[in-house]
């Protein structure tokens, strides 16, 4: 039952799966922060259309299962409507997975950031306006920097959840570690190596997520704004 | 009630430093004109037909019971609150309704708040240079030089590298004054600048304000500090229930108010 043989025989393939997971997670981390920041800016903006868009987006996306969103991207938009990013289908599926995962995670980033915006005293926004900064300047220079600093720790949790959510990208036909594991498990020759595989993949994820958590905890302390 | 002791002495004429803050009072006619201004918050009629004229270099003290609309009036003058009726002219121009143009013109009206409202994630120096650099598009070196001169003037140049939370209330408020002055405003509004301060810090802020007044800065000051009003103001405006009930000289107002409403109010703050 604890036969590590098959695990190490296919070690190279598993590592490649992890590499695919890391590439997906890294791109999605950047993109979901951008999407989340934009959405949060929309939600606090003085323009009603933008506010409604932000609210609508968050409420729809946050309440849709991620698997469904990824299926929509890969099978709906890509396979059926033929919206593609590149000639190579694996590249296209990669970007659809990034887009689906970031679009989903962005909604959570937005809501977390919004709670951070609420910690910035209203008076500072008024002071910013009174010295002549425009709304977008005061958002960029005064409000968001402080909002980010106050939500670094929960942002870490979102990032960890997102890293684990990469395993759902199998639904978007993206060959990350979960999909590769499943393919391996389907091989009769691999049967005895199932539990080592689970243990190995779990440890692999912890190698990604534990430092992320520690790093964000450290950063939150370092960057705290004294009031 | 308040006489200056300790703190920076800014009450003397200081020669070339006048140029640091001197209002660009080059035009003619009154600097601030408030005409038939009305403001509602829902059903609540907060400003009822307010008329007020502030001349260039004039210091007006606004006094009155809490909830009377003093803050709302200040906030309307630099359009942090839009008004529902009437108009407000600063240096002959009405502030535009929204957008970049409003932001730029709003910087002509400096505002100092009760709760300082310094940017908590920026140093004192950065607080003061932000506006000049981002709104006036001034260079960094020039902005920092001017900022240090202003911090010197308000007596906290040695705190320039610290963050707001590291300063006392009085120091924070002086930094906030410097931040407003850095925009070279035509008029300065002060909304109860000393009410959030411990008593021993009130004078250091009032002294800075008195110095500004002596240099000819046009100021509208909401305060109950009678010493300051008598020392620095040419006019006292008594506001209650959204109306200007009395306009008078400081000496007349505090010794011999014309209206019963004002007398009643004064008797209450004087017995304390
Ligand atoms: N943003 C607001 N929304 C609703 N009511 C307000 C708001 N700001 C002030 N008010 C009300 O307007 C009245 C005048 O307030 P304010 O101008 O702050 O008075 P003062 O500064 O003289 O104490 C008060 O009754 C206050 O409750
Ligand atoms: Mg008030």
TrEMBL record, chain A:
CDD domains: TM_PBP2. Its main location: membrane. It is a multi-pass membrane protein. Residues 18-216 form the ABC transmembrane type-1 domain. The chain crosses the membrane at residues 20-42, 151-175, 195-220. Keywords: Amino-acid transport, Cell membrane, Membrane, Transmembrane, Transmembrane helix, Transport. It is found in: Cell membrane. It holds the Pfam family BPD_transp_1. InterPro entries: AA_ABC_transptr_permease_3TM, ArtM/GltK/GlnP/TcyL/YhdX-like, MetI-like, MetI-like_sf. Belongs to the binding-protein-dependent transport system permease family. HisMQ subfamily. This is Amino acid ABC transporter permease.
UniProtKB/TrEMBL annotation, chain B:
This is Amino acid ABC transporter ATP-binding protein. It is found in: Cell membrane. Pfam families: ABC_tran. PANTHER family: AMINO ACID IMPORT ATP-BINDING PROTEIN, GLUTAMATE_ASPARTATE IMPORT ATP-BINDING PROTEIN GLTL. It comes from the Bacteria. Residues 32-266 form the ABC transporter domain. It is a peripheral membrane protein.
